[in-house]
Amino acid sequence: MLTVENANLHYGAAQALRGVSLKAEMGKITCVLGRNGVGKSSLLRAVTGQHPLSSGTVTFNDTRLNGLAPYARAKQGIGYVPQGREIFPLLTVKENLETGFAPLKRRDKNIPDDIFSLFPVLQTMLGRRGGDLSGGQQQQLAIGRAMVTRPKILVLDEPTEGIQPSIIKDIGRAIRYLRDSTGMAILLVEQYLDFCRELADYVYIMDRGEIVHEGLAETLDTPEARRHLTV
Ligand SMILES: Nc1ncnc2c1ncn2[C@@H]1O[C@H](COP(=O)(O)OP(=O)(O)OP(=O)(O)O)[C@@H](O)[C@H]1O
């Protein structure tokens, strides 16, 4: 399980996270909802090691992650699908997937077949450049690339952003499959309430750097959730 405790994060004098605590359990989908600029990406940067915490802790299965570089966290089993996908535009789809080999032992350096069962379009486009794919295809590629690293927890930053509804469905199905088939933990941040409510087991709502509401997805109080998401 991933645990964030009392996390504070600053950009210079500006504070983006204020005493954030949350858990993402194995075999569960945990969703952090919030409007633009409330600190969702900052939270994921703190989890993946892209930005240090000013105070507080990030722990994964009893290993304290504070101070570990992003590649060391990838080796611990943290897979990251960043906002905007960050596909390498001049590398082919196959080469983009192979960048996920970096944290793996030699015997594990292969592309698992289930990536292509989940996202058949990636197989048909293996030789195409990443930059030639549509936004939705790039999102599938970014999830595939993270799956190559054999993560124990998959961390996704707004996977539905700028994606058409049919591909949002495919992505939701893939995330559910990963939870159910591997028992991995999934932590995703989103602005899209309905996607979270359908997909998540547990939901946190963030506002201005703080967790302001939390609960099981099925008991999410929709008017209150919407209030935090629209104010
Ligand atoms: N590199 C940075 N330098 C300074 N301020 C930053 C930086 N990155 C983010 N911020 C500020 O920190 C706050 C939280 O930003 P963050 O990106 O975590 O929010 P978010 O909820 O992920 O929003 P979005 O949906 O727009 O990505 C915002 O006020 C933002 O302007």
Q: What would you say this structure looks like, in words?
A:
InterPro entries: AAA+_ATPase, ABC_transporter-like_ATP-bd, ABC_transptr_urea_ATP-bd_UrtE, BCAA_Transport_ATP-bd_LivF, P-loop_NTPase. This is Urea transport system ATP-binding protein. One of its GO terms (molecular function) is ATP binding. There is one protein chain. The protein is an alpha/beta fold and 231 residues long. It has helices at 40-48, 70-75, 93-98, 114-118, 120-124, 135-148, 165-182, 193-199, 222-230, and strands at 2-11, 14-24, 29-33, 55-60, 63-64, 78-81, 153-157, 185-190, 202-207, 210-216. The chain has a single domain (2-230), classed as Rossmann fold, CATH 3.40.50.300. It has a six-stranded mixed sheet with strand order 6-7-8-3-9-10, sandwiched between helices. It has a four-stranded antiparallel sheet with strand order 2-1-4-5, covered by helices on one side. Helix 7 (165-182) links the parallel strand 7 and strand 8 (185-190). The longest helix has 18 residues, at 165-182. The protein starts with a strand and ends with a helix. The protein binds adenosine-5'-triphosphate.
